[in-house]
Design brief:
By secondary structure, this protein is of the alpha/beta class. 34% of the residues lie in helices and 14% in strands. It contains 19 helices and 16 strands. The protein has helices spanning 20-32, 38-41, 62-75, 98-114, 129-140, 166-176, 182-189, 204-214, 230-248, 259-271, 277-289, 295-303, 319-324, 327-335, 351-357, 416-422, 459-463, 523-532, 543-551; strands spanning 45-50, 79-84, 119-124, 144-148, 155-157, 160-162, 291-293, 380-385, 388-395, 405-413, 435-438, 470-473, 485-487, 507-511, 516-519, 571-573. The strands form four sheets. It has an eight-stranded mixed beta sheet. A four-stranded parallel beta sheet has the order 2-1-3-4, sandwiched between helices. α17 links the parallel β11 (435-438) and β12. α5 (129-140) packs parallel to α11 (277-289), α6 (166-176) packs antiparallel against α7 (182-189) and α10 (259-271) packs antiparallel against α11. The mean pLDDT is 96. Bound molecules: FE2/S2 (inorganic) cluster.
């Protein structure tokens, strides 16, 4: 954490040659190579993470954002210095973007530590980038502000509004069920992503954007303007200006990311019907600050937090409509009685003070009043039982109500290869009332806990018109997906969790009402199976994969590396 007497600007973190004067002399000589004057070098230095990449169209407006942020910084009397970090594009990172989130957080943390800056603007958008940046910045401890790249626009397919990626899955499901032909699926492929920016539904990217604002880490209203709008550029300019303020006031990130702001973020996650991935990310961010997430308390919080935002996949609209309806300030106003209004934000004002300054409410149909919710409880429920002693989750707001109390026969797939080989086989012994179980897609299993928990429906059932089945795995699912899908089963199968020992034909009971996920097999039988077929944990000989497999934690600890969490835990959130 920065102390008042700490050196600022270019004097920060000098390379030690045993002569501080020489270090500064050398540093100034080199940065003057960029054409900067001594006058410029006396200003507060604001680092800006440039996460543009040809592999990341969700950050495709990076050049314009950088220009606007730099303008805001200069207008406020700071010196902008942009620098690159890793960028993770969801569809381009194998084995899964989650495998790289911690690497990006380490890159971000160490670049913030290594380079002289008084504050940093973190520019992120695509799913894993914002959590990685918040995790890294939380550990580095500088004054920091988040800028979201913004959502993409929606497209239009044969008169219907479409957007990535809930509609990607819906149309692909229709294609698999042979309801639409190759020409139509090719046509819709051209419409799903009509501009740069992040997915246009309440997927992980939009969820993390809303969470960043709820945490107080963005300027007010910073979550929702689409990527290609002038409003997004004004947010970027304003972000640059506020970055100079937080540098001057030494408003370090630990003053914004607190127990209270974490609780506000959880409340918002539940009220937006947000992505299940955000639980893992919030757990990791909290872990960097020394807080454990209490899943039972989160579930209790969920029971008293209605879903108010009518966006796909839980509802009907898209991010641009959320923005037009007033965005996060409008939602936060609805949630006011449930929030910590005294939580500080990057503006230096509290959340409550910001809400006082927000535009007045108006009639719209995207953000509902608490008296007329989309769904009476929070979007996510936490399950327990002998199949998931460390917990599992289900996005109840995107599930089929008819399947939420269900008992069925397990149809088991041992991993992704097994799934790919057999799911569409005409010989697969599967009925609509069965429960599909997929193993080995947890943090260590795949590795990286891919978003493969949205197990495709067997083609032969899809053709019969089956639209949903109970599906269970230790993996994650895209925030844009929907269905009665149990995720994050902990401990995972690859380290010998009970899921490893489920066999074809076992009975499984899901009760969302009771918050239960039960494998109807005795403890003795499970112990016998564990002895008969012991699990060998995945290993790697070298490199990042070795680091990953030896240090990654389970879903209930945020899938962070164990050595990156705060050395000591100082509390649990939420307190509900
Ligand atoms: Fe980047 Fe969806 S692929 S946000």
């Amino acid at each position: 954490m920065t102390k008042p007497e700490d050196p600022a600007g270019m004097r920060k973190g000098l390379v030690n040659y045993g002569d501080a004067g020489f270090s500064l002399f050398l540093r100034k000589a080199f940065i003057k190579g960029s054409g900067l004057t001594d006058n410029a070098l006396e200003r507060p230095v604001i680092g800006i993470t440039d996460t543009g990449s040809g592999y990341n169209p969700c950050h495709g407006n990076m050049p314009q954002l950088l220009e606007a942020v730099q303008r805001g910084i200069m207008l406020a009397g700071g010196l902008p210095v942009k620098f690159p970090t890793i960028s993770i594009g969801e569809s381009f990172a194998a084995p899964t973007s989650m495998y790289l989130r911690n690497l990006m957080s380490m890159d971000t943390e160490e670049m913030l530590r290594a380079q002289p800056m008084d504050a940093v603007v973190l520019i992120g958008g695509c799913d894993k980038t914002v959590p990685a940046q918040l995790m890294g910045a939380a550990s580095a401890g500088l004054p920091a502000i988040q800028l979201i790249t913004g959502s993409m626009l929606t497209g239009s397919h044969r008169g219907e509004t479409v957007g990535a990626c809930t509609d990607c899955r819906r149309y692909w499901g229709k294609f698999r069920a042979e309801e639409i032909d190759a020409q139509e699926i090719a046509d819709v492929n051209n419409q799903l992503v009509p501009s740069v920016g992040t997915c246009s539904v309440m997927g992980t990217a939009s969820t993390m954007a809303c969470i960043a604002e709820a945490l107080g880490m963005t300027v007010p209203g910073g979550a929702s303007p689409p990527a290609v709008t002038s409003a997004r550029m004004r947010v970027a300019e304003q972000t640059g200006t506020v970055a100079v303020q937080i540098a001057k006031n030494r408003l370090t990130i630990d003053k914004v990311l607190t127990e209270k702001s974490l609780e506000n973020a959880m409340r918002v996650l539940l009220a937006i019907g947000g992505s299940t991935n955000a639980i893992v990310h919030l757990t990791a961010i909290a872990g960097r600050l020394g807080f454990e997430v209490d899943l039972q308390a989160l579930d209790r919080m969920g029971r008293e937090t209605p879903v108010l935002v009518d966006l796909k996949p839980s509802g009907a609209h898209y991010m641009e409509h959320f923005d037009a309806a007033g965005g996060m300030p409008a939602l936060l106003r609805e949630l006011k009685p449930l929030l910590h209004l005294d939580a500080l934000t990057v503006t230096g004002r509290t959340l409550g003070e910001e809400l006082e300054r927000a535009a007045p409410p108006f009639k719209q149909d995207v953000i509902r009043p608490r008296t007329d919710p989309i769904y009476p409880q929070g979007g996510i429920a936490v399950l327990r039982g002998n199949l998931a002693p460390g917990g599992a989750i289900i996005k109840q707001s995107a599930a089929d109500p008819k399947l939420m109390e269900h008992e069925g026969r397990a149809v088991v797939f041992e991993g992704l290869e097994d799934l790919a080989e057999r799911i569409d086989s005409e010989d697969l012994d599967v009925k609509p009332e069965d429960i599909l179980v997929l193993k080995n897609i947890g943090p260590k299993g795949a590795p990286g806990m891919p978003e493969a928990g949205y197990i495709p429906l067997p083609r032969k059932l899809a053709r019969q018109g089956v639209k949903d089945m109970v599906r269970i795995s230790d993996g994650r699912m895209s925030g844009t997906a929907f269905g009665t899908i149990v995720l994050h089963v902990t401990p995972e199968s690859a380290i010998g969790g009970p899921l490893a020992h489920v066999r074809n034909g076992d009975r499984i009971r899901l009760s969302v009402e009771q918050r239960e996920i039960a494998l109807l097999v005795t403890d003795e039988e499970l112990a016998r199976r564990a002895k008969e077929q012991p699990v060998t944990e995945p290993r790697a000989e070298r490199g990042y994969r070795k680091l990953f497999l030896t240090t990654v934690t389970q879903a209930d600890k945020g899938v962070d590396f164990d050595f990156l969490a705060a050395p000591e835990m100082r509390g649990r959130v939420p307190k509900a």
